[in-house]
Design brief:
By secondary structure, the chain is α+β, with helices and mostly antiparallel strands. It is about 25% helix and about 30% strand.
């Protein structure tokens, strides 16, 4: 019995004895324990457990939370791409979701006890360093938003896939591979250029070394964009003054600035009689529309380091004269170039550039008659997307939006001399243009900003009445529409759609009464037209129709992207330029969407407003411009 107890004690002693050096055994172990426990030290050192992750953690790293976070983000990302949302809301959701996924991922990573702090902080440092280095060498079009919001979720995804794929490898290799994957992912974006975004806010990436549309245009026009252009010989000072002709298109969205073509009829059977292309050519970038007066076409575009006003022969597309200003506006969303459209009045062209230069030019020769700097005159900050208001000429005044502090919102200059006439306070955010209306047989200027609509006396600038509620920082982009019966249709950021107001019968800074607010049509930067008691336009990327007496939607069907629309009033037709550059002809039918015909006009993203004059259609975007004959055979 003693011998048995003694043997048991000695066996327990061997179990608790400090481990021998690999390959050695105590003699009593051999005697008292003929079946010793195997020494796992060498095996463990040679081969780590299969579920130990790459970055040196002591216990297995659980990847499931990271995979779930990223999977939810990408599912949400692709769903939101297809869901109808207001442009501003889509933008804010995109920024917020990217920020949230980065924050959630960092919380998971930094709180993961499976990793030592060296690896946790080291990985964050590598990611940040890669982002900083990429930001220093990336094309400027990628921008801060791209570096902070669009790219980090991609970096997190590729780095997580690397961790999962290398989880069974020895620790040193996965570390090196992970660092390489992070750097390469950031590095790929340094090879790209972002040529703006679509109306659905999808970045348009191209390889950085491929020429831009502007570079292709400048290559075809040697010398353009590097030095001021001299006027061609055809712009001699004795050129005949231009005068407004019946059927001309002298201002933004037409003679009445409402997108309505009156007194014109076009061929509608485009299958039997296709529209005939008269000319089509490259242009410098810009989102200006076109005006057509006395056989001449006027538009604005960017040419290298110069903002230009261009006069073309409307029938041939050939250049007549070019005015240049040493200024360049560019931002990542829409790219370079002027945003506003020229205005013709009394033989003169009035323009507003994206940087705030207001010019008065002789329409026949391009000679500068006077020029003003809005930023200097109003102390306004340069808007995020550039000055976009097309000048309004009325009562001998040129009215433009500046958005400056105090009363420097809307400014009026004397049309003949450029001297300041009056100024009035507005909201500081607007990409809309002033409109002239007749209310109770009295002319009034209507203007929409983030403070709502104001109605002004043109001669004095005194405010007669207001409509709508102020919405701070709302990016207003379309026009108010005065309707028959003293009604006003205007965008309403409060409703995130449209609102109908009753115009006050008397003046005196009274407020217009709201009849209804509706989300039946939610225009973004795409204007609308009104016909026979119905409004037709873009509800974000889908075309639709609402009833004006109630704001109720009648239909919403046509998927034309973020395009623009004109109304051919005499024929009850809608001419739509799709975001893709297609021209689509529709019936103005409140019961259904009925397509009459279509053809491809220009290539590339097309946000510019089209123009129609004398049976000819003019379409342009930031790359091309062309003219098509739509006259009846």
């Amino acid at each position: 019995m003693r011998s048995v107890n003694r043997a048991g004690k000695m066996h327990l002693k061997n179990l608790i004895r400090p481990a021998n050096k690999p390959g050695t055994l105590h003699s009593e172990t051999l005697i008292m324990n003929p079946h010793p426990l195997p020494d796992l030290t060498a095996a463990t050192a040679a081969k780590p457990p299969a579920d130990v992750a790459a970055l040196g953690q002591e216990t297995p790293l659980r990847y499931r939370p990271a995979v779930i976070i990223l999977a939810l983000y990408w599912i949400f990302f692709f769903v939101v791409r297809e869901v109808e949302l207001i442009t501003f809301i889509r933008f804010m959701i995109g920024m917020a979701s990217a920020a949230l996924v980065v924050l959630a991922y960092l919380i998971w990573w930094l709180s993961n006890r499976s990793l030592n702090w060296r690896d946790r902080l080291g990985a964050v440092g590598v990611g940040l360093a890669g982002g900083v280095l990429a930001g220093l060498v990336a094309d400027k079009s990628i921008g801060v938003f791209g570096m902070l919001f669009f790219i980090p979720p991609t970096v997190l995804t590729t780095s997580t896939l690397c961790l999962v794929a290398t989880r069974r490898m020895p620790a040193a290799r996965p570390r090196a591979l992970w660092v390489a994957v992070v750097i390469l992912t950031w590095g790929v974006f340094t090879l790209l250029r972002m040529d703006g975004i679509t109306g659905m806010q999808r970045p348009e990436y191209h390889w950085r070394w491929t020429p831009t549309a502007e570079e292709l245009f400048l290559a075809a026009h040697p010398g353009t964009g590097r030095s001021p252009l001299s006027a061609p010989a055809s712009t001699a000072s004795d050129a005949a003054p231009l005068t407004l002709q019946p059927g001309d298109w002298p201002a933004f969205r037409g003679p009445d600035r409402d997108g309505v073509v009156r007194g014109e009829s076009i061929a509608t059977d485009w299958n039997a009689s296709p529209s005939r292309k008269i000319w089509r050519q490259r242009v410098g970038p810009g989102w200006s529309s076109m005006i057509i007066v006395d056989g001449k076409l006027f538009t604005q575009e960017q040419r290298g380091e110069f903002e230009t006003v261009v006069c073309l022969d409307a029938a041939a597309g050939s250049e007549v004269w070019v005015h240049t200003d040493p200024a360049r506006f560019w931002e990542a969303v829409a790219g370079a170039g002027p945003r506003a459209t020229p205005t013709f009045d009394g033989g003169r062209i009035y323009t507003q550039g994206a940087t705030g230069i207001v010019n008065c030019l002789d329409a026949a020769t391009g000679k500068v008659l006077w020029s003003r700097d809005l930023v200097k005159d109003s102390k306004a900050a340069l808007p995020q997307w550039g000055f976009s208001s097309s000048p309004l000429v009325t009562a001998g005044l040129v009215v433009v939006f500046a958005g400056g502090p105090d009363d420097k919102g809307l400014l009026a200059y004397r049309a003949d001399t450029g001297e300041p006439a009056w100024c009035v306070a507005t909201g500081q955010h607007s990409y809309s243009s002033p409109v002239l209306a007749s209310i109770n047989d009295q002319p009034q200027i209507l203007f929409l900003s983030n403070d709502g609509v104001i109605a002004l006396d043109p001669a004095s600038g005194n405010v007669d009445w207001r409509a709508g509620e102020p919405v701070p920082n709302a990016p207003i982009s379309i026009q108010p529409h005065l309707l028959a019966g003293g009604l006003l249709l205007a965008p309403s950021p409060v409703e995130m759609g449209l609102a109908l107001f009753s115009v006050p019968a008397t003046s005196g800074s009274r407020a217009a009464e709201k009849r209804w607010g509706s989300r039946g049509l939610q225009p973004s930067f795409n204007d609308l037209v009104v016909h026979s008691g119905f409004a037709y336009g873009f509800d974000e990327a889908i075309f639709g129709c609402i009833q004006l007496d109630s704001g109720k939607r009648r239909w919403k069907k046509g998927r034309f992207g973020h395009g623009q629309v004109l109304l051919l009033e005499d024929q009850g037709l809608l001419l739509v330029t799709a975001e893709s550059g297609e021209v689509v002809l529709l019936s103005a039918d409140p019961e259904k969407l009925e397509e009459v015909g279509r053809f491809q006009a220009v290539d590339g993203k097309t946000w510019n407003h089209p123009a129609i004059a004398h049976g000819r259609l003019y379409v342009r975007n930031a790359e091309e411009m062309g003219c098509w004959d739509l006259k009846m055979p």
